[in-house]
Every structure is written in structure tokens, then in C-alpha cells.
């Protein structure tokens, strides 16, 4: 692989395991180690570990950190307890999505950690700097100094507790705790991107390499980005670039619940209010087809009479549900559940209908 | 190293052809199935459809990707391997046994442009 792609701290481990590597978000990342199906099932049934060191960590602090984060973030951080995490988006003034992210409210005063998508780190950092004018805050993009692994699946509480030597049974969903590894700060949060119970651990790159090896020795299955996508998709979770983008607002994607309209303001609020009041042209839906053929991103969505009314954003033959399902952006008139919509797959048309986007019953420990 | 059978002809798009008189039996190479990973669905034409050399006649689907199948010869589809409908994984397990379609060739001279096993070995690496 050329030097044009960045490598995470676990790159050597991936090669040693014989992973199939591929570029993702500017990084040379593992797509699979054994098979996507086996790794997917390991997470659903036991525990799997993902290298997510490519994700970005941006630290915000200062007397006006709370006001600043609330200005750029759709969710409301004012009532957060230290150790709590919220999901939400950063928006452009027109309501398009800059990124979707997690906000960690630090135990220290006036401090937040923002965890952003790898592909958007530079764009997000510049967006924050540009919108920080007039706010007394410091903004630090510390992404290169952190590694990260996600341990996901029903067995993760037991194995993460054992490996870290901490009792994590009391750590509540969307909360985190600080600890230390080799004298440096580390973080463990009960979060993930799979629809299962699980944890994400942040630490120095050196500590992450050791943790990776320890989890593998404990029987946790290494999992690549291939099954990360099949898992998040089944759980109804969006991927920036597919289901959220500069052209797709949270209202269009059906994630208004992460936008707090009772806040005085946040960037993009006026546009979202208008979208809620006046309706949006396109909405994100789930579609299930009655065949094993697979609706892939970019395939057209049609009415039974052949009129094109949308496009598939992500689709699979679901591993956990054994159904061919997809997310699609369609004209709002055809978004109600039960609407018959066809998908054109190569030369054939497959009948389907609009179904709930959360295809898989998630198993979070709340 | 993927397996290449000496007695077959190959296309640069990784289909193999076994010639039986005027009938071309068509499948995909060991290299192709290895590249695809677990195959979950095989999209095939119907008996009686015509296929044209170089044009797609169906596709293989893995979890992650779909890969189109290109006809190595022109003609009429006279048989489709229906076993693959329920067991697409046969292509992973035995790529040279799991044929996909049989074509009654309209122009057997098209076979001349296909690759020998030795020439295909240069492509499949």
C-alpha cells in the first residue's frame, strides 16, 4: 500500500493477523480478518474488538466551553453530568450536516471531549475554529495522540472488566470513566456502533497496542470495518457520507430527536425549524425487498409504475435477520411505513416496501 | 496461490469456460471467488435468454460487494445451475465444479480470444 494512506497504531497487528486491508477515510484499515459474517456474528453473540483509532479526538475547554459546544452542537449539553455522553450533529447554517459526533462532558470543569469521524477531522476542527470567534475557549485537535478500540457484544462487560481490572457493571450506557495506563490518561465509555452492549476505550497508541493483544488473548474476536458497517446498519445507525451529509440534514434522516429545538440557538437551528414546519423534500427510510438480491448504495428506488423516486444509501442482505434491506433517500410522499417501493438491481426490478429503519432489536444495557 | 485448471479457457474478467461441442459451460475462477469472499447470492439469467460476449449476464454478491459476470462467448442460455440459488457458497467451495450457466454458442471462433491457463495465470495474481 502506498504511503498516501495513514496508519493507526494497530497497523502492524492487522498485517500480522492477515487482515484484508483497504483505504477508509484516509487510513489503510482492516476490512476483515476471517469473514465479515463470522465477525458480525461474534459481536452479536459473544464479543469482538475493532480498531477505531482513526476516529478524531478534539478537546474543548475554557470558561465558555459549554456555551461554545452548545452553539455548534444540535443536542443540549447544559444539563449533562460529568462523565455523561451525548450523541448529536454539527450543522451548516442551511441545516446540512458537518458531522455526527459524541460529546463527552469531562470530570474537570469547563471541558468537553468531542469524538468525530475520521474522514472529517480536519474539516470539523476548522469548522470549530471558524465558529469560535467571540468565545473564550481553547480547541485542541489531539487525534494523533490517541488510539481507540471498541469492544462490542454481550460478553464485553465481563471481558473489559477483567482486562482493565475494573468493575464496569455499574457504568451506565452513554457514560464514561477515566483511568490511567502507563501513567497516562485513558477513558472507557459504554458506547458503540453495533447495536449491542459494548465499550470504547481511548488511550495512548502504545497502551492501545497492548490492550489489543490482551483482548485477543482473552478470546475476543478481531473485527474489521466490513462487519462494523453491517452491524451499525442493522441497528439503524447512520454513517456520515451515506445517511448524513452536507446535503442530508438530521430532519431528513429522521434524527430530530438529537436536535434540541428548545435551545435558544445552535448553528442550523433556523433551517431545521423551517424543515420541520414546512416539510422536507426527501426522507431517509428503510426498505425491505422479498428476495435475496442485494440493494446497494446508488441503486434507484422506483414506484410500481417505474417512476424513480429515490436512491439507496446503504444496503445488505442482513446477516442477523436474513433479509435484503436498505436505507434509501426517497421523496417524502413515499416515506410512510408500508408504502410499496421497488428497487432496480442491475437489469431487474424487485418489489419491496417501506419498513422501520431500526431493522434489528438493539441490546443496549441501559 | 489460487488454483487454475489446465483444461479450461479463461476471460480477463475471471470467468472460466469449459467447451463441450457447441456448448460453453461457464463459471468463475478460484481467484475470483477468493477475491469476493463469502458469496451470498448469484444473479443469473433465465434459460432462453441470449448473452453477448463481453456484456454482463448476471452478478455475484458477497456481503460487502457485488461483482458483475461477463459473458466470455455469445449465444443462448440453455441451462442455469439452479443449485446455486440455495447454495451460492458452492462457488467458494468448488469454483470449478459450481458452473453458473451453459451457453449454446453462436460463434465458436470467439473462443480464440480467450486465455489459456498459462496466460490466465499472469492475469490472476
Short description:
Chain A has 366 residues and is of the alpha+beta class.
Task: Please tag this protein with its features.
heterodimer, A: 366 residues, alpha+beta, six-stranded antiparallel β-barrel, 9 helices, 22% helix, 32% strand, globular, B: alpha+beta, OB fold (Dihydrolipoamide Acetyltransferase, E2P), 35% strand
Protein described:
The complex is a heterodimer of chains A (366) and B (125). Chain A is α+β, with helices and mostly antiparallel strands and 366 residues long. Among the domains of chain A are: 11-53 and 146-234, Gyrase A, domain 2, CATH 3.30.1360.120; 56-142, Aminomethyltransferase beta-barrel domains (Alpha-Beta Plaits, 2-Layer Sandwich). In chain A, 22% of the residues lie in helices and 32% in strands. Chain A has nine helices and 19 strands. Chain A has helices at residues 11-16, 36-45, 65-72, 121-131, 156-164, 205-217, 225-234, 250-253, 269-278, and strands at residues 20-24, 27-32, 48-51, 56-61, 85-91, 97-105, 111-116, 138-141, 147-152, 176-181, 184-189, 198-203, 221-223, 282-289, 300-302, 308-317, 324-331, 340-345, 348-355. In chain A, a hairpin with a 5-residue loop joins strand 15 and strand 16 (308-317). Chain B has a single domain (10-107), classed as RNA polymerase II/Efflux pump adaptor protein, barrel-sandwich hybrid domain (OB fold (Dihydrolipoamide Acetyltransferase, E2P), Beta Barrel). In chain B, the strands form two sheets. A six-stranded antiparallel beta sheet of chain B has the order 1-2-3-9-8-5. In chain B, strands 4-6-7 form a three-stranded antiparallel beta sheet, with no helix packed on it. The longest helix of chain B is centred in the first third of the chain and has 7 residues, at 30-36. The mean pLDDT of chain B is 95. The interface between A and B is medium-sized, with 19 and 14 residues.
Amino acid at each position: 500500500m502506498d504511503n498516501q494512506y495513514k496508519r493507526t497504531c494497530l497497523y502492524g497487528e492487522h498485517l500480522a493477523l492477515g487482515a484484508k486491508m483497504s483505504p477508509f477515510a484516509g487510513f489503510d484499515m482492516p476490512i476483515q480478518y476471517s469473514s465479515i459474517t463470522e465477525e458480525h456474528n461474534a459481536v452479536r453473540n459473544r464479543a469482538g474488538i475493532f480498531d477505531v483509532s482513526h476516529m478524531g479526538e478534539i478537546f474543548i475547554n475554557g470558561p465558555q466551553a459549554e456555551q461554545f459546544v452548545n452553539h455548534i452542537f444540535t443536542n443540549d449539553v447544559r444539563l449533562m453530568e460529568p462523565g455523561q455522553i451525548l450523541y448529536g450533529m454539527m450543522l451548516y447554517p442551511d441545516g446540512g450536516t458537518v458531522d455526527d459526533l459524541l460529546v463527552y462532558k469531562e470530570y474537570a470543569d469547563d471541558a468537553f471531549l468531542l469524538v468525530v469521524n475520521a474522514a472529517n477531522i480536519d474539516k470539523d476542527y476548522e469548522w470549530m475554529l471558524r465558529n469560535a470567534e467571540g468565545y473564550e475557549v481553547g480547541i485542541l485537535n489531539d487525534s494523533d495522540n490517541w488510539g481507540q478500540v471498541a469492544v462490542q457484544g454481550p460478553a464485553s462487560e465481563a471481558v473489559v472488566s477483567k482486562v482493565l481490572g475494573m468493575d464496569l457493571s455499574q457504568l451506565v450506557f452513554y457514560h464514561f470513566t477515566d483511568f490511567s495506563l502507563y501513567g497516562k490518561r485513558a477513558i472507557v465509555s459504554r458506547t458503540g456502533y453495533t447495536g449491542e452492549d459494548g465499550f470504547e476505550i481511548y488511550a495512548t497508541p502504545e497502551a492501545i497496542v497492548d490492550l489489543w493483544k490482551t483482548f485477543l488473548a482473552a478470546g475476543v474476536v478481531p473485527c474489521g470495518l466490513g462487519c462494523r458497517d453491517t452491524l451499525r446498519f442493522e441497528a439503524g445507525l447512520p454513517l456520515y457520507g451515506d445517511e448524513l451529509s452536507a446535503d442530508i440534514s438530521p430532519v431528513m434522516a429522521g434524527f430530530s430527536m438529537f436536535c434540541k429545538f428548545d435551545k435558544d440557538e445552535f448553528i442550523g437551528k433556523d433551517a431545521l425549524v423551517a424543515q420541520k414546519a414546512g416539510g422536507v423534500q426527501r426522507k431517509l427510510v428503510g426498505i425491505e425487498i422479498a428476495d435475496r438480491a442485494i440493494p446497494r448504495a446508488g441503486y434507484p428506488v422506483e414506484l410500481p409504475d417505474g417512476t424513480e423516486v429515490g436512491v439507496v444509501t446503504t444496503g445488505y442482505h442482513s446477516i442477523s435477520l436474513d433479509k435484503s434491506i436498505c436505507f434509501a433517500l426517497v421523496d417524502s410522499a413515499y416515506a410512510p411505513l408500508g408504502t410499496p417501493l421497488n428497487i432496480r438491481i442491475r437489469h431487474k426490478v424487485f418489489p419491496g416496501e417501506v419498513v422501520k429503519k431500526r431493522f434489528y432489536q438493539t441490546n443496549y444495557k441501559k | 496461490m489460487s488454483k487454475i485448471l489446465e483444461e479450461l479457457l479463461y476471460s480477463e474478467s475471471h470467468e472460466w469456460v469449459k467447451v463441450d461441442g457447441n456448448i460453453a459451460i461457464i463459471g468463475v475462477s478460484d481467484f475470483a471467488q477468493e477475491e469476493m469472499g463469502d458469496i451470498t447470492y448469484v444473479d443469473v439469467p433465465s434459460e432462453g435468454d441470449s448473452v453477448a460476449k463481453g456484456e454482463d449476464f448476471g452478478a455475484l454478491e458477497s456481503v460487502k460487494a457485488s461483482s458483475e459476470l461477463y459473458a466470455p462467448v455469445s449465444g443462448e442460455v440453455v441451462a442455469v445451475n439452479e443449485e446455486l440459488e440455495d447454495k451460492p457458497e458452492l462457488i467458494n467451495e468448488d469454483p470449478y465444479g459450481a458452473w453458473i450457466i451453459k451457453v449454446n454458442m453462436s460463434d465458436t471462433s470467439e473462443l480464440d480470444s480467450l486465455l489459456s491457463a498459462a496466460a490466465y495465470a499472469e492475469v490472476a495474481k
